[in-house]
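In response to reviewer comment 3 from the previous cycle, which asked for concrete evidence that the modeling workflow produces usable outputs, we include below a single protein chain processed end to end. The sequence was submitted unchanged, and the resulting structure tokens are shown without manual editing.
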Amino acid sequence: MVAERLGEHLRATVTSGSGRGLSNDGALLADVRSVLASCRTLIAGRDPQRGYEAAKAISGIGEAVTRLGLAIDRKGRLGTGRGSWGEAMLAAVGPACEDRFAACDRLEESDDDAVIAALARDPTGFAAGPRLPGRRPETGPAARDAHGQATADGRARLSARLAEIAEAAELLAAPEGDRARMRGGWATGARIDTLTGYAAVESPRGRLHHLVRLDENGRVGSYAVLAPTEWNFHAEGPLVATLRLNSYPPGGEGFARAERIAGLYDPCVGFEVAIEERRDA
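The workflow returned the following structure tokens.
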């Protein structure tokens, strides 16, 4: 889970609209490829604390993340090295862009009972378009961040993601006791009744819910998955609310703004931006 979080965050940042323009350095791309390959090694199931291959992967990840300019200080805050890729990424989404963002309504573990109850009533419909009364929930790094309520500009959102990359690199190298304690709240689950149970996982992009029902023979009768993207990209969700706060000048500037904002909400699939002039009847 730690390696997956690190690898997915790094891949999403490098391939985002802002990241593509800053990621054409050969040495940087070599580091990115190395980290992603090492993450795949760890995700494959090897014990991160035993074996030469896993130890080498963890060491390489730590060194590469440092070269990217990402580190966590003693107060748990993200620090980016001067002139580093991390610093450039934050500058690319900073206040000069003049993007505006809606406040973050965090989806948390305390919401699980309501989410699972709704998912159990309508597995297909709720998974495709989840909603909580009076809420506009968001999930992911910005929501997990202790300061996620205030997103004055894109730096706050991206900083939360970059901080999780640096934290994950440290976590991989930490002693097992520290790792177990630090990731203790990443996954929870419970039985609803004799044949039904759920799990909620803090995946890279946010809180991921699974609901499974067994039949009388103990086989899987139904399985519902509610992905984080369905919250963040809901038609009445946080991305749409943010898009409505901004204006989109004609030409490349408006297109770049829409793409930049969408990328900061980290969709789980590729996306394309099209801007059409609104024509009221």
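The longest helix spans residues 154-173. We consider this sufficient to address the reviewer's concern, and the full set will be provided in the supplementary archive.
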